[in-house]
């Protein structure tokens, strides 16, 4: 079209290209390019605007098709991953059930150990309180004994006459 500066119909383009007549309908980007060339040759404003719109639509359709393909691929990947996770979870549950029948779970064992640890801590606390009370009793007896010894070692004040007790003064 450009070489001869002559517009061609869609049918003529597909005939000269020796392709299926529906080729331009399936490949909107090619059809938009043909419309752009026709508009350029005709130097028509409305035709050029229509060609630009057709080109944008074709580009959007191509992009939409690519996005749909990506979406389909992502959905397939998602389904594969979900199936893999289901399989792994089933194997994990099967292993837990298999192991759980012969041996108790770790959490149950830990839960049984906690009361034993609490009881041991309470017993140690009681022993410490008993020892502390014994030390308090010893300390109290020693203080009483020490007070007696101090009182016994102190010289007793001598008794003097009442005149000696008078305060000095005029």
Notes on the structure:
- The model has no long low-confidence stretch (mean pLDDT 79).
- This protein has helices spanning 10-17, 23-26, 28-42, 45-102, 106-153.
- The chain folds into two domains: 10-95; 104-150.
- It has 170 residues and is mainly alpha-helical.
- Helix 3 runs antiparallel to helix 4 (45-102).
- It has five helices and no strands.
| Contiguous runs where pLDDT drops below 50 for at least 5 residues | none
Order of helices and strands: HHHHH
Mean pLDDT over the full residue set: 79
Largest sheet: none
Q: How many helical stretches?
A: 5
Spatial separation of the terminal alpha carbons: 147 Å
Rg: 53 Å
- The count of β-strands is 0
Structural class: mainly alpha
Strand content: under 5%
Q: How many separate structural domains?
A: 2
Q: Given the C-alpha coordinates, what overall shape results?
A: elongated
Helix content: over 70%
Short description:
The protein is mainly alpha-helical. The protein has five helices and no strands.
Q: What is this structure's SSE topology?
A:
Blueprint: H1 10-17, H2 23-26, H3 28-42, H4 45-102, H5 106-153
């Amino acid at each position: 079209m450009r070489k001869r500066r002559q517009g061609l119909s869609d049918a003529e383009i597909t005939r000269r290209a020796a392709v299926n007549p529906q080729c331009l309908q399936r490949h909107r980007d090619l059809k938009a390019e043909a419309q752009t060339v026709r508009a350029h040759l005709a130097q028509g404003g409305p035709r050029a605007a229509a060609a630009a719109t057709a080109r944008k639509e074709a580009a959007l359709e191509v992009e939409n098709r690519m996005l749909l393909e990506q979406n389909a691929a992502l959905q397939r990947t998602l389904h594969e991953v979900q199936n893999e996770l289901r399989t792994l979870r089933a194997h994990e549950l099967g292993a837990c059930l298999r192991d759980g029948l012969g041996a108790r779970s770790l959490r149950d064992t830990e839960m049984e150990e906690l009361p034993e640890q609490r009881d041991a801590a309470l017993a140690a606390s009681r022993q410490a309180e008993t020892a502390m009370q014994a030390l308090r009793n010893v300390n109290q007896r020693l203080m009483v004994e020490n007070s007696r010894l101090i009182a016994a070692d102190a010289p007793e004040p001598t008794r003097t006459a009442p005149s000696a007790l008078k305060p000095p003064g005029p």
